[in-house]
Amino acid sequence: MQNPAVPQPERKTLDDRERMSELERLRHSCAHVLATAILRIWPDAQFAYGPAVENGFYYDLELSHRISQEDFPRIEEEMKKEIKANHVFEKRTMTREQAILDAQSGRLGGLAERPGNASKFKLDLLNQIPEGEAISYFQNGDFIDLCAGPHVMRTGNIGAFKLTTVASAYYKGDEKNPQLQRIYGTAFKNKTQLEEWVKMQEEAKRRDHRKIGAEMGLYAIDTEFVGPGMPLWLPKGTVLVEELERLAKETEFQAGYVRVRTPHLAKEKMYRTSGHLPYYAESMFPPMEMLEEDERKRRTQLTEKRADLIQLAESIERAVSPNPNGMTGEQVRHDIAKLEAEISLMGGRYYLKAMNCPHHHRIFAAEPRSYRDLPLRLAEYGCCYRYEQSGELFGLMRVRSLNMNDAHIYCTPEQFASEFRAVNEMYLKYFKVFGLEKYQMRFSTHDPLKLGLKFVDEPELWKQTEDMVRQVLVDSGIDFVEVANEAAFYGPKIDVQVWSIIGREFTIATNQVDFAVPKRFGLLYRDRDNLGKTPLCIHRAPLGTHERFIGFLIEHYAGNFPLWLAPEQVRVLTVGDDEPLATYARGIVDELHANFVRVEGDYSANKINGKVQDAETAKVHTMLVVGGRDREAGHISVRLHGKGNVGAKPRPEVIADILASIRERRA
Question: I need a labelling partner for 398 at 20 to 30 A (CA). Which of 272, 415, 497, 545 fits?
Fold first, then answer.
């Protein structure tokens, strides 16, 4: 049983449902078939949500019987019966009153009326449906569910399915609510697609970055002393971190970036100005109180004054105490709000930084800027801290301490297109370095109906920047999809989706436009007419975070990293242990080491097959085998991990090829 703190998906809008793909509809339909099967076995089951999700579907339910994977064959057999019955998914629109009656009788969410067993979760879900929005059922056979659809036409349209796991999940994702059982499954159009998916899942388990990371000694997570979600990079893992940083720094230097360094924390004022507080507070670590003595006294005075004003406001509202100052209740509340704002902005509260952008904005503001200084590209591998829920932590993929390949580009509107295009070209360069052949840009835009709520209320700037981003993507010929209502609160963004060598999809990076926060910080540059203008800001992180990107690379390469990235690049192995041979081998090691190659030597008396096997197990990229004849001829026999022997060559040629491969970062 997995951790119950599982994130709860947002309720889909009707527009979202209309955009559901054929496969999503099939999987959503399979969730209803799952519920039908469970009710045939356990008629008292209470159902909550049953959506299609990435890679499948699930249904949350409450049931006294604890479902386990041992129950899956029995459930799947009932599901097959429902599919064979080929029942129509029939949609019916209901009045709110009738829907409530059906839920109270247990008919909604059941196979029949269930006296004394009202469908409590369906009743609650009915209350979430906005007034004026149609309430609809979908029925397949005897099962009726509260659902807006869409579905496939018949249960028989579900080609192939498989139940996968069982987990725990709090109702609505809130730990204050009941803990439910969550049954996961997947479905496809046919058996061949399902079998391919099963094979991919098996290969994914073999490539699991947590498993390989432990076997190779790349990182550790010490929950007892350090804390969950905060990786410790071991020496071999640190090699990966530093090689990625070197790649990024070289690439960014060539692209005209300048490097900066910022602290790991900042005053509360920073994040209130940026807008991250209070809206991002749940994802930030709690604040630290660090007041100087005079500040502490001032805060005490303000707090006492605030308490007196609150008491005065209550007295005025009850009309039990005349106000000697003649102030109205509204005036008193206004003064309370001013005091609260002053208290909140006092320098005593510090937060660990959850993002680098506010610090970079202050670097921009640290000096006068002219249009001649733009574009200004500030880059940093900044360490950030985000309080992910414990149930969401997952190896390196979801952590609380993360090092981000971050940069912020400050530019004029005229410079925006070329800068945004250059960032996209940087992505493509990285894809080539890592052999990523399948990728897609996910262009997220705003929802005009949520301006001022979820998105900054600047309709003209939203249209302008979204048009600019869209045009750059079209002109660049980059494969992208456009998704509404998923932009950042301050501007449109691009999430970069890549597929590993076995076809698993990952989101590794983001590229965002920000027209709002620079204005909040009062960032200005002087234009040609000496007028103050606010720059546009491009947030970009092509390599994402070390943690997530290395987790992806471990699974992509299955730990068999290319030579330039491998923690142990070369191991020199002797065939025997006589001293002249060992001396020759040590000379090779010394020469490689002098050229900053990560190289080890095994000059022991162990048999060569055992030495080779040890190196293969350790995923050493290149093994240089030397015997008596190699020493006499000045040769080296080269063996590559997973590929075997590639032949003997003169020592200078072998070493030159190794150095060139590392320098060129050959895949």
Answer: 272
* β-strand partners of 495: 442, 510
Length of the chain: 667
Fold category of 14-200 in CATH: Threonyl-tRNA Synthetase; Chain A, domain 2 (3.30.980)
The pLDDT score that the predictor gives to residue 359 is: 97
pLDDT per residue as tens digits for the range 184-200: 999 999 999 999 999 99
Residue ranges in the chain modelled with pLDDT below 50: 1-9, 11
Residue 480: other Cβ atoms inside 10 A: 19
Helix axes 235-254, 413-433, angle to 10 degrees: 140
Q: Which amino acid is at 418?
A: S
pLDDT at 307 (0 to 100): 87
Predicted pLDDT at 16: 57
Return d(Cα 26, Cα 360) in angstroms, integer: 46
pLDDT at 121: 96
CB contact burial 388-410 (16+ within 10 A = b; e otherwise): bbebebebbbbbbbbbbbbbbbb
Q: Which amino acid is at 510?
A: T
Rounded Cα distance between 550 and 567, Å, is 12
Give CA–CA dist 431/543, Å, rounded.
10
pTM exceeds 0.85 for this model:
no
Q: What is residue 338's predicted lDDT score, i.e. its pLDDT? A: 85
Residue labelled with tokens 């309720």: 11
Give the pLDDT confidence score for residue 12 in this predicted structure: 53
Residue 541: strand pairing partners: 510
Task: Look up tokens 């028989």; give the residue.
Answer: 156
How many angstroms separate the CA atoms of 379 and 618, rounded?
A: 35
User: What is the C-alpha separation between 388 and 103, in angstroms, rounded?
Assistant: 36
Contact 252/335 with Cβ under 8 angstroms? no
Q: How far apart are alpha carbons 349 and 447 in whole angstroms?
A: 34
Q: List the one residue out of 378, 426, 410 whose CA is nearest residue 514.
A: 410
> Which tokens hold the place of 398?
């979801």
The Cα 327–Cα 319 span in angstroms is 13
Enter the CATH code of domain 232-264+352-557.
3.30.930.10
Q: Give the whole-angstrom CA distance, residue 400 versus residue 619.
A: 29
Q: Which CATH number fits domain 570-663: 3.30.10.10, 3.40.50.800, 3.90.550.10, 3.40.50.150?
A: 3.40.50.800
Q: Which residue has the tokens 């498993």?
A: 211
Q: What is the pLDDT of residue 6?
A: 44
Cα separation, 512 vs 441, in Å, equals: 12
The model's pLDDT over 274-285, given as tens digits with 9 standing for 90+, comes to 989 888 888 999
DSSP reduced 3-state for 73 = helix
The residue with tokens 């002249």 is 580
